[in-house]
Amino acid sequence: MAWVRPLAPITPVGIGALAWPHLKPIFQAIAAKAPDGAPCCDWVGEGGAGHFVKMVHNGIEYGDMQLISEVYHTFRDGVGYSDDEQSEIFAQWNKGVLDSFLIDITTDILRYKDTDGQPLLEKIRDAAGQKGTGKWTAISALDYGMPVTLIGEAVFARCLSSIKEERVRASKILAGPANSKFTGDKAQLVKDFEQAMYASKIISYAQGFMLMREASEQYKWNLNYGSIALMWRGGCIIRSAFLGDIKNAFDSNKSLENLLFDPFFQKATATAQSGWRNAICTATTIGIPVPALSTALSFYDGYRTARLPANMLQAQRDYFGAHTYELEAKPGTFVHTNWTGRGGNVHASTYDA
């Protein structure tokens, strides 16, 4: 059965809630279990809430996979690590803060040899497909005005991969940096990328929960974010030890506005910040594209900035289209200025994103 992008309530209110107490023992008995034995199945909410949460789960999955792929790309083409060497690096990462299903399977993929003894991974065409859930998440983010940038970049990265023949032609005529190989401390770079991966994952999940929060407010779903994180700890593609920290954050503060406001994640991003920036700078300097890692850091820097340059955007919109701008001293007051003295004083309509 094909999925429909769940932008609006799609089930009658009340029916699911009435049925759940009767179905709960059955579903939770057969569901995957988290490491502590908790069933990864629970009631999410009415009116399509479960579908929406599953969609966001899949969007985060897109982001996690893209982050891993960017690290692999940098290590392979920029540093010169073999697949076996990378497998060992990912295996070590899987023992720390990045402990997750996707890191685990990446270790196996990098290690796997074809019948001729060569890494099978390097024989796979670099053009990724998709079934749409990442795209739906990105579209929903735009519809709700939420900056879910990492998932968006992960979707666009797949789109870029799909124009393989065009990229091959571009590779022959477009210049890159003079030095495309890393010549510094490899051991330190591995540590930097581990921190970059970890911090970027935090951003991706923070963005995903921002989107669910906005949808929950619009549809009155009253989502239990701690319970959602609990459900994702087992039986899911994005299952990881990291989700336990997310559950703890929401359990300790039911009204937590954003994961980045939780003390644990504040400290984690602050600690990772130096390596995070170094990793992205290194990849950019040697010409390796890292769109997901980069947009995560850009979001972090934007989110922690009290005054962004959107005042310039508003002035420009008002100048060329009389769309008005909001005064800092009078929030909610929109005015139009005749910037040149030649235009009129009639303003156009505007909307909030």
Please, could you describe this protein's structure?
This protein has 2 domains: 31-303, Orthogonal Bundle (N-(1-d-carboxylethyl)-l-norvaline Dehydrogenase, domain 2), CATH 1.10.1040.10; 310-353, Single alpha-helices involved in coiled-coils or other helix-helix interfaces (Up-down Bundle), CATH 1.20.5. A hairpin with a 7-residue loop joins strand 1 and strand 2. The longest helix has 34 residues, at 186-219. The protein has a two-stranded antiparallel ribbon. It is built from 13 helices and 2 strands, in the order αααααααααααααββ. It is mainly α. Mean pLDDT is 92; it is low at 8-12. The two termini are 33 Å apart. One of its GO terms (biological process) is D-gluconate metabolic process. Belongs to the 6-phosphogluconate dehydrogenase family. One of its GO terms (molecular function) is phosphogluconate dehydrogenase (decarboxylating) activity. Homodimer. Pathway: Carbohydrate degradation; pentose phosphate pathway; D-ribulose 5-phosphate from D-glucose 6-phosphate (oxidative stage): step 3/3.
